Fold:
Amino acid sequence: FLFVGLIFFWLWPPIHFDAMLSRQLYWLMNWSMLLDGLLFWWLILDSRSPAFSNALGYGKRILLLALVAIPQMILGAWIVFSRGMVYDVYEVCGRAWPMPPETDQLLGGLLTWIPPAMMSIVGILIILRRAMHEDGGHSSRQSRQPITEGSAP
Structure:
């Protein structure tokens, strides 16, 4: 909730307007998003095995990645397909590159939509690889144990 909530909070047009015009709010927005992202990905990419520690299980990590991707994609799509200007603050403070406002909004929406979805998919693939590698490691260790007399295969 914190990860997606902060994204929605800072991209809510009135809050974003104020953050873009206030140096203190701008830095707070950037630092809070950086720390929030680091904490989220630290949880997701935790190298400890859930089988041998109290780390979050692989299934829960995958579910989290899917759950954060959906609202981000919806937010990005809303920005892309909005008829009017969502962030009129850029008329006041300017744009990084000279481009029409519609193009700027389209690119901003696409950047809010596509990269987060791709990062969630990459994260899911990494977690699946870890889970399969761990599962394969346990089964191969079990199959290599010698069968002693009186033990079931």
